[in-house]
Amino acid sequence: MKKQIFFYFLFFNLIFIGEIQTQNLLPHWDANGLGLNQTGVSNTEMWRWGWNSSNSFYSWGTANVAVGTIRYCDMPTIYTTVTKNGVAYVGRFAQLRWDNGSTTYTTLGYGDGSATSRGVPNAIQLSAGTEYNFSFWGFGNQGPSYIMYVTTDPTGANQNQTIASLSINDLSNHTTMKLFNLDFTCPKTAAYYLVFKFVSGTASIFFMADIDLHQVTIPTAAIATDITKTGFTANWSAVPGFTAYQLDVATDNSFINFVAGYNNKSLNGISETLTGLTAGVTYFYRVRSANESIVSANSNIISVTTVAANSPDVPVVTDPVDVGPGRFVANWNAVDGAISYQLDVATDNTFTKILSQYTNFNVAGTSQNITGLKPNTYYYYRVRAYNGSSSSNSTTVSIKTQKLLIILMAGQSNMAGRGIYSQLAPADTVTYSNILSLNKDSVWVRAKYPLHWDKAEAGVGMGITFAHALAEKIGGNVAIGLVPCAAGGTSIEGWLADEWFANTGNFYLYSNLINRANKAAQSGDIIGMIWHQGEANASSITTPTYQEKMVTLFTNIRNSLNLPNMPIVAGELGRYLTYTYLNETNAAINKLSSILPNYAAASSQGLTPNSDILHFTAASQIEFGKRYANLFYPLYVNSISAVENVTVNKIKLNVVNHILHISTGSNSSTTIQFFNSLGYEIKTCVVNNSENEILIPNIKGVCLIKVQNSESVITQKFLL
After folding, report:
1. What is 10-45 written as a DSSP string?
2. Considering all CA atoms of the chain, what is the largest pairwise distance in Å, rounded to the nearest integer?
3. CA 702 to CA 476: how far, in whole Å?
4. Are 490 and 474 in contact (CB under 8 A)?
5. pLDDT band at 714, cuts 50/70/90?
6. Distance set, CA 339 to CA 312, 342, 387, 390 (Å)
7. How far apart are CA 639 and CA 574, in angstroms?
């Protein structure tokens, strides 16, 4: 990227943009300011610009005198702003010495603050191999005035050593500034210098910027908060390197009518609370970063309207309830005089990402069921009371939707399901808010049949019944997420080879399973897989055997998901089938439990087929799902990491008939906490006796109990 060196006329003032950045461009002038110590000359006169046509020199005070053939003017340090190529700077400005034309090729030096010294004709050394852009603002006489050289000769006298040059000419009677540019890359050999030469003509003048050039970040004004009838809090972003800010507040966006005390008000920090304002009035604010004499340009403008005088009070929000994987109920207290409430729900706490269906949502009561959400995701809500005009926003409540326990479903058509929906009993058509399914578009939806879309005939399978039965066994506020990946007619060889499955699916078998599993894992924890396949392999015996291929496939899946102990349940093929090697295939499915850890096989005994004598009926799928769940649950319990007893000491625990018997050996205060298998705290109580009996809350399956007092702590796992 090019280094940019900027030379500007003193009063070319523009706006800041960018971030704080010091540009070490040129040798320093006197840091105390040029010419400030000259006796009898005021600073204002020292940098007052003007052209005196009668005596042909600039009227800048007594410093502007002739010494031999030299005229020069030293200036005080001042701050101003300049812009080049869309980048704005602020910095000190000072004047180059100038010659009256009697000498050609005289190197220009830099003023040093002395009224009697001409200054040293220093050159600027450049970095070899670096791209540069030099930009000049200048004015002077007509005809050539200056030449800039990039040369190995720091005096600029030997033009044969020049690699780049720029003539600064066509300057019109000291009235028009012009911009001159020179772009080049400094060669990577030798030392090169930037040299300025006065060439010819009568007296000319030129200015350039000092070393202290800065780009300055403009703060970003943010939306107002804590809006009331008589005030609000103005907010803005912090600017690195700046601790001071200037705030303007007005009743018009042109900032002509300022609020008293808020015309360029100096502040520290990134917010300001205003009070004593008028109800129902729109105010505007903007801010600048400031550091000594360096001040940024204005920020963006924020408008805010105070609450109308007759507006209702702000509602008090309360904690949400009935939190599920895709829902929760928002609550707030009633406000006197309110006829309704306005609700916002967003995925960020600044409400820049408000859900379209819950933007200014009108609610008649003091609660609202929020649905259609993503599992394991943070949401935020706020509410306003309304009685013809709206109150300001309530405080913000955050809630994280429930995490899913994720089950993968894979295999062929009897896992996808071909049961006929109309043949289901009414009780088996129920759907559940805590059982979701990842649809074809990888969106979580409430699970309902058909779960799969592998073929047009997809129908009732075992998935929903399995998930409901498993949730009942685990207990607590558990939510199950099903990931359908089965594909009708596929062989185990096809799964191992990651074959392409067309039909209505259009996916690679193995890759689709892994990709969808990883997508689902963003919403919870994968706890296992249910598998049903084998009809496509039961007509012949192959080498390796079907059982060996199952071991390879299941091991590959576990390794791909980094879940080496993931529970897997497979099911027998329908015993009504007439395949040559049906019994051998079912035997392989059953005997795999002695080879593969954390695996079980579900019996198909008594299950019946559709009229095709191939696929299970809807009723059989319902029964099969329950059998799968009965086998999966103990595998799941075994896969949960053992709980370490941190300190046993005097505390003793025993569970009988859902009652915790606890002995602490002390009458000191003891806290008992109950958690379900997901780690959710279900109940907490405190006892002060050494012997206690406590009814365990409604937890089924694994229950974690933590007991702690000043002397001991213990955590134990019980299977209820």
Report:
1. TT------S--EEE--S----TT-TTTT-TT--HHH
2. 120
3. 10
4. no
5. confident
6. 10, 10, 5, 10
7. 29
Strand-pairing partners, residue 250, are 258, 284
3-state secondary structure of 700: coil
Angstrom distance (rounded) from CA 84 to CA 609: 81
CA distances from 329 to 326, 352, 367, 393 (A): 11, 22, 7, 18
DSSP-derived 3-state class of residue 550: helix
Q: Which pLDDT band holds residue 461 (cuts at 50, 70, 90)?
A: very high
Q: What φ, ψ does residue 83 adopt, rounded to 5°?
A: -135, 140
The upper half-sphere exposure of residue 150, i.e. CA atoms within 13 Å in the direction of its Cβ, equals 19
Percent of the chain topping pLDDT 70: 68
Q: How many residues does the chain have?
A: 720
CA 88 to CA 8: how far, in whole Å?
Answer: 12
Residue 460 vs residues 169, 429, 447, 688: alpha-carbon distances, Å: 88, 10, 12, 54
- Helix (H/G/I), strand (E/B), else coil: 660: strand
Q: Is the pLDDT of residue 527 over 50?
A: yes
Integer Cα distance of 717 and 245 in angstroms: 58
Q: Could you tell me where the beta strands, DSSP code E, fall in 511-644?
A: 524-532, 568-571, 599-602
C-alpha dihedral sign at 494, 496, 500, 504: positive
Among 223, 228, 238, 220, which residue's Cα sits nearest to residue 352? Answer: 223
Average pLDDT over residues 650-669: 77
Instruction: Give the alpha-carbon dihedral of 259, 265, 267, 269, to 10 degrees.
Output: 50
For residue 583, the 8-state DSSP code is: H
More reliable by pLDDT, 338 or 21: 338
448 and 408 Cβ atoms separated by less than 8 Å: no
DSSP 179-194: EEEEEEE--SSS--EE
Closest Cα partner for 274 from 287, 264, 260?
Answer: 260
DSSP-based three-state secondary structure for 692: strand
Residue with the larger pLDDT of the pair 60 and 427: 427
Neighbour count for residue 706 (Cβ, 10 Å): 17
Q: Which residues of 88-107 are buried (b: 16+ CB within 10 A; e: fewer)?
A: bbbbbbbbbbbbbbeeeebb
How many whole angstroms separate alpha carbon 532 and alpha carbon 568? 11
**Residue bearing the bigger pLDDT, 451 or 133:** 451
Quick check: bond before 544 cis, omega within 30?
yes
What gap in Å lies between CA 73 and CA 99, rounded to an integer? Answer: 11
How far apart (Å, rounded) are the C-alpha atoms in residues 266 and 250?
15
Model pTM score: 0.53
Residue that has been written with the tokens 């509410």 in this structure: 383
Q: In 251-316, where do the E strands start and end?
A: 265-268, 271-274, 282-291, 294-295, 302-305
pLDDT of residue 20: 28
Percent helix, strand, coil in the chain, to 5, is: 15, 35, 50
